[in-house]
Amino acid sequence: MTSYFRRYTQGEHEQVWNEVRGLGPVPGGLREDVEAVATATMERVARHVTRLAEALPELGFVRAADGLPPHQPPTAGTAAVVRETEAAIGVLPAALKASFLTVGDVSFLGDCAAIGLYYHQGPLPESGPPGAAYPDPLDVAGAEHLRYEWEAYLDDPDDPDDPDDPDDPDGPDDLDDPDGEFLFSLAPDEYHKANISGGTHDVVLPDASADPEIHGVIGRKGITLVEYLRTSISWGGFPGWEFAPGPAPEALARLVVRPDF
Questions:
Q1: Which end of the chain has fewer CB atoms at under 10 Å, N or C?
Q2: What is the pTM of this model?
Q3: Cα distance from N-terminal residue to C-terminal residue, the chain
Q4: Element (H, E) at 106
Q5: Which of 63, 70, 69, 24 is nearest to 49 (CA)?
């Protein structure tokens, strides 16, 4: 049997991920192979994130938080943080673990009129997401944020964060009572990314699957981490434009590529 990793490096990107998702909890004998696929995937994601982070300032992008760069790669201490949190929480999904170790922190939140992105500037949206008024800028938390949230959870395990709108048909089912599972806030939701009170995009941990579902992504019920990253990169880091009734800004075309993962 040809390994998933070999097939992936030969170009079977989507097919391999579809198959490893179908495994459910990854069997121990396949874990190393699946983690190799996840690492190769996130290495490619990291290259795209670096490219986008370098290109955004040329379009007039102003980040939302002073001192917080659009991309912070993993540090020398990241692997230790991942080991510590995995030992405490339980097994992490292969794709999420590889993102911590290879991609790091990503935050494209900010203002950029050329691509219709507003945080501190611009008019308030007249409707809710999904749509062009909510570009959903790419934002992925790193391992340090996982450790921070886990420590906060240990301080108050009976009060899990349940940010999802109960009227949102795309929100998770019964995640307000995770029965010992930990709800990790991977990113702000579409509202918070536009500086409007909202919720978060969440991953339930522990999870022995290859590619975790991201709960709370409006209009994309059931989407997984790799699927979300693929969609985001294909829209230059701003996948909310996929829901726009008309054409996306011309400036966005400078950021758009066909994902190679």
A1: N
A2: 0.91
A3: 22
A4: strand 105-107
A5: 70
